Amino acid sequence: MLGVNIVINIYVKVFNDVFVRGTNDYISNILFFMLKNTINFISVILLLLLFQVEVEGQTKFELLPDRNKHSVKFQLVNNLIIIPVEVNGVVLSFILDSGVSKPILFNLGSEDPPEFSDFETIFIRGLGDGEAIQAYRSGDNIIKIGEAVVNDKSDLYLILDQGINFAPRLGIPIHGIIGAELFRDLIVDISYSREKIRFYKPGSYRYKRCRKCYTLDLDMIHNKPYLQADVVLNGQREAVKLLIDSGSSDALWLFDRKSNGLSVPKRHFDDFLGRGLSGSVYGSRARVEKLQLGGFEFKSAKVAFPDSISLQHLQSLSERDGSIGGGILKRFDVTVDYTGKKIRLKRNRYFRQPFKYNMSGIELQHNGMRIERVPDRNIRKSPGYGETPKTQRIMSEQLSKYSLYPTFEIAEIRSGSPAEDVGLEKGDVIFSVNGKRASGHSLQEMISLMNVKAGKKIRLTVERDGERLQFVFRLREVL
Q1: What 3-state class would DSSP assign to 108?
Q2: Distance from first CA to last CA of the chain, Å, rounded?
Q3: Fewest CB atoms less than 10 Å from the CB: which of 18, 135, 299, 396?
């Protein structure tokens, strides 16, 4: 689980704050033109209000009539919940995001993708400083989770931009994001420790007595859940309103502004925070002295302060002071009840795990596959009768097996980190870590190998421009 704690740079909850929506090609193109040329922002808002009813058609997730609950297994990757979702008969992998308004699909391969109908063009923006991107709204889709959770008239948004792909940073295929409608229509019980979700019909769920649980009130704003917490930062205790954001792998985000009494601590470092819908997200990382959630307290929890450029296109920033993500949520088994406007937390086996930062400064990503020769272990080590070392080598090559292995590439290097100090570069392909070949390891295993403990010597062999190079550095504790 070490890799899960360390790697928190994948901030995929970028669709929760969709900035521009359209209802047909004509309106969408008007909105995009106005947004791109920064003309008459007020007119854009008025248009959005005029057409909001048409865009936000009500759809509903329900359990089958003979079921009051249903369980689904998930994968926990980088503090994110990855669940199988069937879209129009095709099973895909989705991130469960407690705030995303509508299901969003991207990174669909050419092999048997789902079929869609009723398309209309829209333009959307999110985190990052890039341009708005084109998407397509489709209605009357059948979405199914497990065997019993169904929405047979679901709206969804389809993004065809090949640059929107979070699979390389997570190491597994990701085809979309889903969330708010599930939480709105059902009671969702998430066991991070057992990697299982239970969905309940709201009227059938009964809260059991639990001495180790703590229940917090939710403030629902635009179908998004907020809770109250306290943070101690720069020696001052501040009450904060946080968006519950299961689609963020970070622990805590805070917005640096004078109005909420929060500011970046003196002890911090600038870093790449993740990939947003509209580009890369940068900011500062630090630690809060304390984070208080009801009866639970965390000391020295990690916090990120995104820069103003990355946040400039997001809505509803004035309604909150930040967000609480998977880096905190995974330390509990969580029951989310939008209908009752409450969330219940029960700490689990992850609760006391330390909050660690990436000590190497390397952010890895999966970058395709490579073919490597695997020798047959049954081949004799010494020449047999009538064989020479040369003929045996030829036989060995002929009898070898060839396998496909993932390629791991350095996606980002933190300024001033041990990796940067020794000359490693973005784009270097990792061949081995401390003598262990990258082939045959998962992305999470590779990350763990490079973030063992402070002071550990790391020997990396990388490939750069067809040349194999070696680098040695020691891990350093951050903050």
Answers
A1: coil
A2: 21
A3: 299
pLDDT-derived band at 25 (thresholds 50, 70, 90) equals very low
What the block records as the tokens of 245 is 């954001």
List C-alpha distances in Å: 24 to 55, 120, 123, 136.
10, 5, 10, 10
Task: For residue range 392-431, list pLDDT tens digits in order.
Answer: 554 444 545 666 667 899 988 998 999 999 999 999 999 9
E-strand spans in 55-118? 62-63, 69-73, 75-77, 80-87, 90-96, 104-105
Q: What is the CA angle 157-140-337, rounded to 5?
A: 75
How many domains are there within the chain? 3
140 and 42 housed in the same domain? yes
Radius of gyration of the chain, Cα coordinates, nearest whole angstrom: 24
| Contact predicate 343/337, CB 8 Å | yes
The whole-angstrom separation of Cα 413 and Cα 431 is 17
Backbone angles phi, psi at 49, to 5 degrees: -65, -40
Q: Return the DSSP state at 114.
A: P
Q: 462 forms bridges with which residues in the sheet?
A: 430, 469
Identify whether 144 is part of a domain: yes
Same domain, 294 and 247: yes
Q: Are 115 and 38 found together in one domain?
A: yes
Q: How many C-beta atoms lie closer than 10 Å to residue 120's C-beta?
A: 17
Residues in the chain: 479
pLDDT tens readout for residues 211-236: 889 999 999 988 889 999 999 998 99
- Asked whether residue 62 is domain-assigned, the answer is yes
Distance CA 455, CA 295 (A): 36
The pLDDT confidence band at residue 18, using thresholds 50, 70 and 90, is very low
Which pair of structure tokens corresponds to residue 42?
Answer: 């007020």
